[in-house]
Amino acid sequence: MTGRGGVDQGYSDRVACRAEMVNLPQLLALVARAGQHLRLDAQALHDLQLITEEACVNVMRHAYPVGQPGPLALAVQAVQDGAGRRLVLTLTDQGRPFDPLAMAPVDTRAAAEARAPGGLGVHLVRQLSDRQHYRRDPRQGNVLTIEKQLAPAPSNRL
Fold it and tell me: Which residues cross the membrane (predicted)?
């Protein structure tokens, strides 16, 4: 299910699907459409797609019991305000409660074999985005909001 609205700062779009790896391409395509619509540079689009992949795969692998995938929704919204232009990604799922932002930061200076397993995806999300927020909603379940500041929109002037 996909819905669209507005242009540039009012741009929004959403995909709802089962939390299965087979649906990852359509979730990444959602971000690609937003990037094209907003005329993002290659680096910003790459960062947003990596953020999306890491967050969605975490839900697909860990939110639900093995073999029982549940719902996953990804919404993208462009916002333009006094703080500038940014893209807001909101992931929702009905899986077991889990705040990925409560995980201890990964010590990337430590040798890989000395680190506890896991957490690198959350580390990447933190490094590539500007703001993250988690809440558990009684109706929506896990709600993870990730914001990335964007460069000013390219001008159409010559």
Answer: none
